[in-house]
Amino acid sequence: MTNNSTPGNAPLTDEERVRKSRKRKAILASGAVLGVGAVVTLAAWNDTVFGNGEFGVGKTAWNVQGSIDGTNYNEYATGPGGKIAFSATPIDALNLMPGQTTTGKFWLRETNGNLDALVTIQAPTITPSPNSLADVLELTIKDSTGTYVDKKKLSSQGASTTITVPKGETKELTFEVTLPATANPNQISDTSAEAVWEMKAESAEA
After folding, report:
1. How far apart are CA 109 and CA 167, in angstroms?
2. Residues linked to residue 142 through DSSP beta bridges, in sequence order
3. Burial class (CB in 10 A: 0-12, 13-18, 19+), 203
4. CA–CA dist 47, 101 (Å, integer)
5. Over the Cα atoms of the chain, what is R_g?
6. Which candidate in 107, 109, 122, 133 could, as Cys together with 190 as Cys, close a disulfide (CB 3.0–4.6 Å)?
7. Can you name the residues that pair with 173 across neighbouring β-strands?
8. Does residue 2 have a pLDDT over 50?
9. pLDDT, tens digit, 9 for 90 and up, residues 165-198
10. What is the mean pLDDT of the chain?
11. Cβ distance 152 to 158 under 8 Å?
12. How would you label 76-115 residue by residue, b for 16+ Cβ within 10 Å and e otherwise?
């Protein structure tokens, strides 16, 4: 049997042993609290790092332009756009006679060579409107591959038509306006008509 005594000291009483045991428990409890406190402090440390990049799609990817001479191209982004040079000789577009047809050219091109362009030629806006001359004139739109609008009334043109301009290539359109041989000038109250065609282009799927 051992006794709770320290060399050179008298044996501990029961009361002293109880106080010493409580002190050890208090120290251990204090250490446990400090340990938990240290873990909480470590968990609160944090840091953040950012990185960024910018992206976009611009005219360097896809673009459609128009030309009235096949050489000089422009955006023509607002009406009335490029003025189509309808023939003055031998047919004068401003002084048509029954049975005559005046012809004009307009070119479209996709400039960047990445995607085809789907171009929808809308029915023209006529000035002044309503217009008895536009109700009589007949319109044809075609290119080297076929006819898109075939002798439709200029005032309506019928439904809009969509053509494809291959990527990086040019499409030459021919506009023909005819005053039918059966037209009676005495029944046409308007002596002039201006037509503006909007050609809406969108990129085709790759």
Report:
1. 8
2. 147, 174
3. middle
4. 77
5. 44
6. 133
7. 106
8. no
9. 999 999 999 999 999 999 998 889 999 999 999 9
10. 82
11. yes
12. beeeebbebebbeeebebeebeeebbbbbbbbbbbbeeeb
Mean pLDDT of 104-119: 94
Cβ 121 vs Cβ 161: under 8 Å: yes
Per-residue burial over 182-194, b = 16 or more CB atoms within 10 Å of its CB, e = otherwise = ebeeeebeeeebe
- Structure tokens, 73: 């191209």
| Structure tokens that stand for 167 in this block | 């990527």
Tokens of 51: 């990185």
Q: Looking at the chain, how many residues does it have?
A: 206
Token pair recorded at residue 6 = 């320290």
Helical segments of 2-93, H only:
14-43
- The DSSP 8-state label assigned to residue 74 in this structure reads B
Whether the predicted pLDDT of 60 surpasses 80: no
pLDDT above 60 (res 8): no
Structure pTM? 0.72
- pLDDT tens digits along 117-151: 999 999 899 999 899 999 999 999 999 999 999 99
